[in-house]
């Protein structure tokens, strides 16, 4: 009795040898007609991985967060450093109106000025490190890869365009006319400070520079979404010590006990998807039909290597209405206007998930 | 420099490159050279398709993270229109040198800026496409691109085509779109604060600028040209630039 030998490959080998058919198989013809199309990681095309957020994991940073989405893990640490205004080239003191509006709780005009400060003096410094070993493609001892550089540009750009951090929180004031708070560090009596400060105006003496460092502990696709969630969670967790100018020592002193939370505006959430097409586009430019492509939400590493077209939408639905903060779509023509419009709903749904995870961690 | 100046282009400006183009519009001047298909380095070699390599050099200083990001966007965009499957194991290299960019008088100009520069993207894309055409690299379609800013002025929403740096700074949102010659949306980058409806409006404006004269009604386009689209007709521009170059090259016949 002989049976015809059947060649069967274990899944990892199948994935390695022919990744495209491997992914296509589950999507195009599910094993049984009752089953919905599934990706190789067991998710449906529009299914994301659950997100988990853990804040304050680092003891020496002013704020930190560990965000995990599936097998992509990012650790973000925020550390503030004081930048005295004397060390800023081309420093322009704030005009009085701006200072005034800040006291009153901020206004539209102040917003624009504040953004200028953040950008001109580089008060937000994100850096992304894709650790060796987090994925096989990252080799040791090489300069930052194009991916790392691209990611940090995107984070930097989005930090500024969303106005996540207010410049007012980063200013350190000298207020000769009072408003001194006695912290533990103060060894002089409060009365002495007033002597030379008489008649002086309130002025900004230093800024906090926030170094936002991101480390990928493990990398399994969708780096930007996870990195951005980590940045937002870490900034929300950040507490900067209360700092003030000591006119006698002519230096900025920080309080040991008092600290202040950063005001983080909104909760923008990034949501990425990749387009997997059945067949690579032909020369003739035949349009890919409906059903010949899949929008894979939250793609993993294997899927990212097989998809050319990607979309990332950043939405903020923290105050009811969904506002789009950024759209990045390139690498293909399948996602058109209709799809982008529809994608806003998908992104809004994801943003609620992420918001829940971030807020659960904080409570 | 006003933003409404008509685009200008010259093809074949570099004698030793396979193809080159110089393009200036909205204050930006970019020169591009295209070499290819040439032999790829071992690590870039792909068994089934050509590797598209894009290098962006800023007007001053050396490229930083921002240029890397622009390169990655351009690379994925241009790889879509070049018939890369026709040239396995080879390399198509596109070098874009920014020569001139508009000054912003309102802020301290820093040499190295890390944030995204939306206004330069259309100029880079357009120059790259012209240089590819000049090099005779087989392409699936051509591309036209534009930048649109959306601003709140005097309580009303206003869309600005080809915004100046000052416009971008004060704008509510900034968008870049690129359409293929089949009117497909190939690239859409937006930043700021907007809703889906606003995005759709801006997309419509951009589409008018990029895809104004459909190939089928070329004769009609001349007549309808006075329709107010708030920007230059990019596709017509691409066509007339190529036409004048071809006419000049075939003059001896």
TrEMBL record, chain A:
Keyword Nucleus: yes
One Gene Ontology molecular-function label: mRNA 3'-UTR AU-rich region binding
Protein's cellular compartments: Cytoplasm; Nucleus, Nucleolus
The keyword Nucleotide-binding is annotated on this UniProt entry: no
UniProt keyword annotations, A-Z: Cytoplasm, Exosome, Nucleus, Ribonucleoprotein, Ribosomal protein, RNA-binding, rRNA processing
Family: Belongs to the RNase PH family.
Domain Exoribonuclease phosphorolytic: 47-241
Record region (Disordered): 24-51
GO biological process assignments: exonucleolytic trimming to generate mature 3'-end of 5.8S rRNA from tricistronic rRNA transcript (SSU-rRNA, 5.8S rRNA, LSU-rRNA); nuclear mRNA surveillance; nuclear polyadenylation-dependent rRNA catabolic process; rRNA catabolic process; TRAMP-dependent tRNA surveillance pathway; U1 snRNA 3'-end processing; U4 snRNA 3'-end processing; U5 snRNA 3'-end processing
Record's protein name: Ribosomal RNA-processing protein 43
Superkingdom, taxonomy of origin: Eukaryota
GO CC terms: cytoplasmic exosome (RNase complex); nuclear exosome (RNase complex); nucleolus; ribosome
A Pfam family that the UniProt record links to this protein: RNase_PH
InterPro entries: ExoRNase_PH_dom1 (IPR001247), ExoRNase_PH_dom2_sf (IPR036345), Exosome_comp_Rrp42_subfam (IPR050590), PNPase/RNase_PH_dom_sf (IPR027408), Ribosomal_Su5_D2-typ_SF (IPR020568)
Primary localisation category: cytoplasm
From TrEMBL, chain B:
GO molecular function, a single term: RNA binding
Alphabetical list of InterPro entries matching this protein: ExoRNase_PH_dom1, ExoRNase_PH_dom2_sf, PNPase/RNase_PH_dom_sf, Ribosomal_Su5_D2-typ_SF, RNase_PH
Domain (Exoribonuclease phosphorolytic): residue spans on this chain: 9-138
Keyword rRNA processing annotated: yes
Domain of life per record: Eukaryota
Transmembrane segment boundaries: none
Family assignment from sequence similarity: Belongs to the RNase PH family.
Protein name stated in the entry: Exosome complex component RRP46
Biological source species: Chaetomidium leptoderma
